[in-house]
Amino acid sequence: MKDSNLKSNRFKVSDYVVYISFFGIFALFSIILYDGGFLTGQNLLNITRQTAMISVMAIGTTFVLSAGEIDLSIGSIVALSALITAISLRMDLNIWIAVLAGLSTGAFIGFVNGIIITKLRVPSFLITLGMMTIVAGLARWITNLEAVPVINDTFNYIFGNGKVFGIPILLLWTVIFLVFGQIFLKKTSFGRSVLSTGGNKIASLFTGINVDKIKIAVFIISGVSASFAAILYTGRLEGARYTLGQADLLLVIAAVIIGGTRLSGGKGTCVGSVVGSLIMGMIANGLVLMNLNIALQMVFRGLIIIIAVSFSLRERKRL
Amino acid sequence: MKEPILKMLGISKSFSTVEVLHNVDFTLNIGEIHGLVGQNGAGKSTLMKILNGVEVKDSGNIIIFGKEEEYNNPIQAREKGISMIFQEFSLVSSLTVSQNIFLTRESHNFLRLLKDKESEKNTIKILKELDVENINPNEYVENLGTGPQQIVEIAKALSHEPKILIMDEPTASLSSHEIESLFIVINKLKKRGISIIFVSHYLREIFEICDRVTVLRDGNKVFEEKILNTNLKEVIAKMTGKEQDLQVSKRKRQIDRSKPPLLEINNLVVGDIVKGISFKVWHGEIFGIAGLLGSGRSEIINSIYGVYKKKKGEIIIDEKRTSINSPNDAIRAGIAIVPEDRREHGLILDFSIKDNILFSVIKKILSFIFINDKKASKITNDSINKLNIKASGFWQVVKFLSGGNQQKVVVAKSLVTDSKILLLDDPSIGIDIQAKSEIMNIINDFVESGNGVIFVSSEFDELVSFCDRILVLKKGEVDSIVDCGIEANMSEEILLEKIQ
């Protein structure tokens, strides 16, 4: 009894599953695709570029899940924010105003999500499910299903195809988001309040945390991070379309969970979420290089998610 | 006599149409430990919630340090110097000890980044003042046992430097050893001049530690006296309003130990906690297991019920070897349990009394594939009458019952299964004396019709007064099995000595 209390932060394999899986899958593809071009520097940089958007959204989702909530509307927010940014640029607005317009879209939707969830006290799963559909509808309606190209080269450079000292700018954005997200979650009293709200809402309330405010804040963070992902998509693809982000939601949630964030709240890590995203990216990349057809890729991807999640989420059995 | 630190005058409170507090006065002197007692539903929790700002009073005044105060949430109450330690712990289990203690009050550096090291240092300081050395400030609360969690809870309250500390059933989930260390801590706080309100069901504790006691009954204050001027009998009489001794007297039982035993456990090993335990329980016997927290007493019961995995050991029921690997196996073998945590493991809080009771016998009341409602209602009504469950009807949701009545539902649930072995894991935690004695009478009847009971408790007087024999468990091994029949000269004190 005494001893077990003194042993602190004991090593639990489940906390490191994401890193073990990362290196495991990395090693696996390196062997299988030895001649297939997986292990080239170019391909590895490619993976980080392809997963930048998932990583950014995963960081936002880490906050939402840590607070014990879920945001299903992020995929739709990507589409709408991307279109609004692209339209702003087509109107020859300043780049930064266009970016601000995009980010505000996500912030606003997140704010509305948060308000409804906290004031009406309805589960976030249902509210954001509804919001997902509304926003997806708006994205289709706003341009009448048309794609909007972006011809502003500066924008496309800063948010898409640029390089700084040979490093893809998308990778830099991911790192910046990661550093800020991790510090914000782990090292500020706001982050601590997010974790405690997800860990025990009642106790947090009694301790003096404004639980509703925290919840609204995490939905805004989630919305803004989805909008930023949208801006990166727009820069990289040099245009926006209502289909952007459509398939991202489940990938993001899987990445965050595999990364070690608790689905029920109270524990979260941005580093884990980004590594989780990289695993997703690596799997997608590897399966393409193996020349599997789309159908088989989907089957394998699902299988790998199930295996990884069952390692990290297996309930602790007592004794 | 100095001016009291706290005066609550004429406090009344109603929930919808039910008046739970009627014109109650309560005073607390500086540096005093004041016991607040009453049966379930007497209004003590509500009174304390009003003082702590969780509930708002309908009328009456609260005067702190001679000044009338108005507040309506715990945070404001804390600013007035009032802190409360809750019965259900208010800790965030996914944070560490020091993160919990300084939640929302963390120190920052110039970048507004948290300085966890400093919280850690302060935590160590607070714990040291309490003479607690076995809690690591960096341990996650979810990895701590209930005893240490209670200490963390106290440390958290103390970090606010309160003048008035409310402790709501602080000993309910502690072992006697932990209670002792808690009392040392409480006396230390008293020396520091902190005034303490001590709410408890355990009257002996009130007499051990308090200076004064106030008794509530049905929302009225019926008694207030210095501890030195009163006694246990008087307080019980005031609580119940009856001048009778509610202690269940021990029944005289003849147990024929020449016949084969009902249950035989051989060389049971569970994890690295229970290290080879053997014992026998005969028909018509209440067999007690006494041990400190962590001695393995819960593990024994839970492995017999198939919740925990056994490393080794055999279970023999009525001379038949029985393999039990899941609660389902146990039920089939005729074993029922009243688990330690009734709210988590014993009940489905959102279900009605009826649905909770029927839950365990659902197969017996089926007509074809449909539930036979007549049969079901009869079983439930029989149980409610037999156990004297106080409710407005069997449709009432158990969440809204008092602790004692909830526990009765759990007992009813295990009795309707017609099992022959009943496992009781600390069945009287947080329930009032009357409910306890009613439950115990039922258990006595159950045993006397030839069944067997294994009874685990952290209250040794309870063990001594109900059991026929008691196994003394030390660190997962059998120390001795003592006779505790009505003729045996067994007392709580002797048992306490043996256990240490």
> What Rg of chain B is obtained from the alpha carbons, in whole angstroms?
24 Å
CATH architecture of chain A: Orthogonal Bundle
Any idea how many domains of chain B? Answer: 2
Largest interface: A-B, 33 and 38 residues
User: Which band does the percent of strand residues of chain A land in?
Assistant: under 5%
CATH topology of the largest domain in chain B: Rossmann fold
Structure commentary:
The complex is a heterodimer of chains A (319) and B (500). Helices cover 74% and strands 3% of the residues of chain A. Chain A is mostly helical and 319 residues long. In chain A, the strands form two sheets. In chain A, strands 1-4 form a two-stranded antiparallel ribbon. Chain A has a two-stranded antiparallel ribbon with strand order 2-3. Chain A starts with a helix and ends in a 6-residue tail after the last helix. With 500 residues, chain B is of the alpha/beta class. Chain B folds into two domains: 235 residues, Rossmann fold; 237 residues, 3-Layer(aba) Sandwich (Rossmann fold), CATH 3.40.50. Chain B has 17 helices and 22 strands. Chain B has a six-stranded mixed β-sheet, sandwiched between helices. Chain B starts with 5 loop residues before the first strand and ends with a helix. In chain B, 47% of the residues are buried. The chains are: A mainly alpha (319), B alpha/beta (500). Chains A and B meet through helix 1, helix 9 and helix 10 of A and helix 2 of B.
Record keyword descriptors for this entry.
heterodimer, A: 319 residues, mainly alpha, ABC transporter involved in vitamin B12 uptake, BtuC, two-stranded antiparallel ribbon, two-stranded antiparallel sheet, 4 strands, globular, disordered N terminus, B: 500 residues, alpha/beta, Rossmann fold, 2 domains, six-stranded mixed β-sheet, 22 strands, 32% helix
